Structures are given as structure tokens and as C-alpha cells.
Amino acid sequence: MKKKTKTKAIAVGATVAAVLSAGAAIFLTQTKAGKKITNNAKEHAIELGQELSHRISKVKKMSKAQYDKIVSEIVEQYAKKRKLTTAKAKDVERELKRHYTDVKKHIKK
Length: 109
Hints:
By secondary structure, the protein is mostly helical. The protein has one domain (3-108). Helices cover 86% and strands 0% of the residues. The protein contains six helices and no strands. It has helices at 3-30, 32-36, 38-57, 64-82, 86-98, 100-108. The longest helix is centred in the first third of the chain and has 28 residues, at 3-30. The mean pLDDT is 75.
């Protein structure tokens, strides 16, 4: 991996992790369902963030449609793995998709 590409991948990973953490914090502190899953939140956010950053770093030009597709695939896999209800998986997916503009800003840097 070229140094510039590796640096970009690390920056994207850090950005995605920060965005996910912020989104997770809001979800977990502001919703009744979120408060119930707070104990496992860090583990979930880290796992999703790592996979999302890995997949995003492979894309040369990120569009909203590509981002949404990646998020949907990751959440679907994660929901099956962790046996999340459909409603919880949809909430997680919706929250991640809301952060496209934040992630996109940092990808350009």
C-alpha cells in the first residue's frame, strides 16, 4: 500500500470512528432502546467502525449511493452476527447513513 493511500485509510478510519461514536452516543443517551444496550455499545461501534472504514478506504470516489450500500451491507451482516432485531438494525443503519456528509468531508482531506 502506498504511503499516501495508507495515511488516507488511517484518516478515514479515525473519522468514521469519531462519527460513529458521536452517533452512538446520541442514540444511546437519547432513546429508550439505546439506554438498554449501552453496555454493549462500545463493542458494536468499534466493530462497525472498523469494517466501515476498511470498506470505504477501498473506494476511490465515494458517492452517497455507494456509502449507503456499504452501510446497508455491513449492518445486515452485523445484525445477523449479533442477532439484532430488524428494528434495531434499521435504527443503526439509519444513524450511520445520516453521517455521510461528515465522512465525505474527511475522505477528501
